[in-house]
# Entry
Amino acid sequence: MHCKLIGAPVQDGTGRMGCEMGPSAFRAAGLTQALEELGHNVTDLGNVEPAPKRALTHSNPALKNLSEIVAWIEALDKAAYDHSADGFPIFLGGDHALAAGTVCGLSRRAKELGRPLFVLWLDAHTDFHTLETTASGNLHGTPVAYYTGQKGFEGTFPEVLAPVDPANVCMIGIRSVDPAERVAISKTEVTVNDMRMIDEHGVVALLNRFLQRVKDANGLLHVSLDVDFLDPNIAPAVGTTVPGGATFREAHLIMEMLHDSELVTSFEAVELNPFLDERGRTAFLMVDLIASLMGRSVMDRPTRSFA
Ligand code: ARG
Ligand code: MN
Ligand code: MN
# Structure
């Protein structure tokens, strides 16, 4: 596989600094070497730069860094569209606001190919606020509502040319949802697997159900992994920790199953804040998870676990 690493040092979608260093931390933790050891061809395309900023205002006074995030969305939409023409793009965040750009670009590509785009959202949060409903004003809480074409972004964020069908979005790991998000997401067909769903059914059943749908639809599959999907005890380097997250084995199992499915066509790792890390342990864990996604396994497995 030809892996293309694309740094997206976005941090203006959060309330604090540090995610800008995320792409460097993935590199320092040995991502390129880990992928090469698996036999992949790796091109590090460096970091994307934001488009020129425009002055923007909005009636919600809480919104933070609107002009900066719109500039990132424009640049990342283009980068995702361009780099998904061939190879396997791996976007290195950067906070989750970057997904407003990447997913829109990937979705334009999918539309052109005549195939539906599916998104697996591994996160503690639904990130389903609009510009009107967010109380924190942190725009990393808005990308899913945006790329699925919900109302509440018109005239401020760029127009979504190829909205992702909400029915094609599957979330796993959810355990922090604001009241407005809960109301809004309930009106859609987004699949929300909260931690209770994992406890009751296990990640295997939840993921297989979704993968079967992707396969039946001949879809493209983008995986968006937020560091806070993981339990804070194993992944402290994130600004929005929520207790009770995915375990080490659950996270690796998901990555291994995704690999075996052969359905994933693009990936992003977001919200890594190296300033909050402990001697790089979260960065190393994230690199190991990406390695599992890209084929690392303890033993050879002759049979595929997903059919
Ligand atoms: N719902 C909260 C907010 O809107 C938290 C969002 C966290 N998002 C994230 N990508 N970590 O402020
Ligand atoms: Mn998120
Ligand atoms: Mn999150």
Observations:
- The beta strands are 2-8, 41-47, 88-93, 117-122, 169-174, 191-194, 220-226, 264-270.
- The CA atoms of residues 129 and 238 lie 20 Å apart.
